[in-house]
Amino acid sequence: MDLSKNKLRTIRLKPAAFITVLAVVLMTVNSIKAQNVASSKEGLAPKEKSIIIISSLTAQGEIPELKKQLGAGLDQGLSVNEIKEVLVHTYAYCGFPRSIRGLQTFMQVIEERKARGIHNNMGKEASVVPADSNKYERGKKILGELTGTPQPEQPSGYGAFAPAIDTFLKEHLFADIFERDVLTYGQRELVTISVISAIGQAEPMLKSHLSISLRTGWSPAQLKEFVTVIAPTIGKQKTTAADTVLNEVLSSNK
The Carboxymuconolactone decarboxylase-like domain covers which part of the protein (predicted)? Predict the structure, then answer.
């Protein structure tokens, strides 16, 4: 009789034990997932570092080194279309001459790799954007999403002083360019802060886009690493300027 009770007690304990073990397993899995998420936010990926370097060198017209880094970017996993998009995006911040020179250099890199039998991953094309909507309003909406601030009905500051540039910014930069989904908003901001840091003497715009970079998902640690990655391409003076602006942005966002 006692033995039967013991057996019954043992049987009854099994579900409880199972639940305990399951809970431990789930906690372990969740802990691993959390660690993976945390580690993914700790540093910049090799592709992201390539975007920074390519953007900086393009902005400065450093063609021999750019040629090397374009090939390195492909080797790090960037697709042809992603690099093309990076180079196209740069023109909004450093002009057509630098951007087109970068694209011409990239064409050479691709042809030389083909000649060596290296397969280049083309990657996805940009999705088609409906042409029947108001481009200015689309651009204004995207700018509001990036800054976290609803855009006023009437432009102010330089936009009011020169209304044409307000139209160009909204319709072309933030609609035509930012709507292209080959790159994420976060990747586009990496291109932007890289170009602005490389050309120098544009601290107010750099401050604005570093703040946007935080909003698009880059962590303070990653933006600190951004300064470290770009430093060898822009020199001590511009690195110090970029680091100073970043510290101001991080302090104001605490």
Answer: 37-102, 163-247
